[in-house]
Amino acid sequence: MMTAPLQHALYLAIFLFALGVTGVLVRRNLLFILMSIEIMLNAAGLAFITAAARWGQADGQVMFLFILSLAAAEVSVGLALIIRIRHRLTTLDADAANLMQG
Length: 102
Known about the structure:
80% of the residues lie in helices and 0% in strands. It has four helices and no strands. Helix 1 (6-26) packs antiparallel against helix 2 (30-55) and helix 2 (30-55) runs antiparallel to helix 3 (59-89). The longest helix is centred in the last third of the chain and has 31 residues, at 59-89.
């Protein structure tokens, strides 16, 4: 069985992270920003798993489990905030949410 080289997996992680950063910086929709953050977290997890496979340690898988639990918490809180903002402002524009104060 052939395996992918370490560089290919790291290049994919870099590409996914750059895609996530671009999505956070360019998009104004809060739902797309949340999805871009999820892409960035998955890219970090891929980098950890790649490093763990390279060195033969289980530390990367443990870190990926922490990243998955962080992503689950982030999605639950983020979606709750998005629903509340949508209910109050009737839009998901990040600039409109900037007007909320209090």
